[in-house]
Amino acid sequence: LLAALEATGGLVRVGSEVDLKDELDTQVLTAAARESILARFATLDDETTAMLRTASSLGASFTTEELAVVLDRPVAAVVDPLGRATRAGLVEPGATNWSFRHELFHEAIESTIAAPLRAPLQLAIARRLTAAGAAPERVVAHYLLGAQPGDTDAVVVLRTVASRIAGQSPAAASQLLERALDLLSSTAEERDDITVELIEMLMWSGELERAGDWVTQALTRALPPELEARVHESAARASSSGGSARV
């Protein structure tokens, strides 16, 4: 960052002191910092750069085991590339995982992955980690980014995590459930159940108008009696709270 500030004229020297320029062009600074990071990245061997690209898709931090699973290699095979990346100052070890030294490092290296490859790579990561026994919470972000319509494995993970976080964050749970519905066909058996769960999460998060829209949509279909009762209950709660649920 200091090198980028120097290169873009963001530093002011007064005698033996250096200060920041009063008005900094953050876009220019960020671009210069990214170029500096990528210049360092480009000096590494092919094995290490490939490993870092995959690591960047795992997130700002990752474990040795996760990286090995995703790369389909034994843990011992990622030791040397991680060592080279560390010596280059791109990643650093923590107590139990590795992290990119700064979010700019993470973003810069991830930007070297061609756009058409990003979603398939995220989906591959999600599937490999799931097969290795990773918790749904660890893979849900990768399914969000990489899943395609009809991916029932992704739907299961999204729904599981939504259920687990519902009490703490119904708004976040509703986003996961909406994504799950996007992945399902209009005739999927679990669609009605997820729709009702979504209505309940929207109601609890205070998004009453959107909950009403989903109520209206749900009641256009013939729901099982227990699901229809839950929809009417949510609509009644929304209406009594001043919402616009329409039954």
How do you describe this structure in short?
The chain contains 13 helices and five strands. It is mainly alpha-helical. The longest helix is centred in the first third of the chain and has 17 residues.
What does this structure look like?
The chain has helices at residues 2-7, 26-42, 46-58, 64-71, 76-87, 103-110, 115-131, 136-146, 152-165, 170-183, 191-204, 208-218, 225-240, and strands at 11-14, 17-20, 61-62, 91-93, 98-100. By secondary structure, it is mainly alpha-helical. The strands form two sheets. It has a three-stranded antiparallel beta sheet with strand order 3-5-4. The radius of gyration is 24 Å and the shape is globular. The termini are far apart.
Q: Secondary-structure blueprint of this entry?
A:
Elements: H1 2-7, E1 11-14, E2 17-20, H2 26-42, H3 46-58, E3 61-62, H4 64-71, H5 76-87, E4 91-93, E5 98-100, H6 103-110, H7 115-131, H8 136-146, H9 152-165, H10 170-183, H11 191-204, H12 208-218, H13 225-240
Antiparallel strand pairs: 1-2, 3-5, 4-5
Helix pairs in contact: 2-6, 3-4, 3-5, 3-6, 7-8, 8-9, 9-10, 10-11, 11-12, 11-13, 12-13
Task: Give me some keywords for this one.
65% helix; mainly alpha; single chain; 247 residues; 5 strands; globular
The total of beta strands comes to: 5
The helix-strand sequence is HEEHHEHHEEHHHHHHHH
Q: Give the rounded overall mean pLDDT.
A: 89
Give the class from helix and strand content and strand pairing.
Answer: mainly alpha
Tell me the fraction of residues in β-strands, as a range: 5-15%
Helix content: 55-70%
The radius of gyration computed from the alpha-carbon positions, rounded to a whole number of angstroms, is 24 Å
Shape designation:
globular
Question: Kindly, what is the distance between the CA atoms of the first and last residues, rounded to a whole number of angstroms?
Answer: 57 Å
User: How are the strands of the largest sheet arranged?
Assistant: 3-5-4
Query: Biggest sheet: strands, sense, closure?
Result: 3 strands, antiparallel
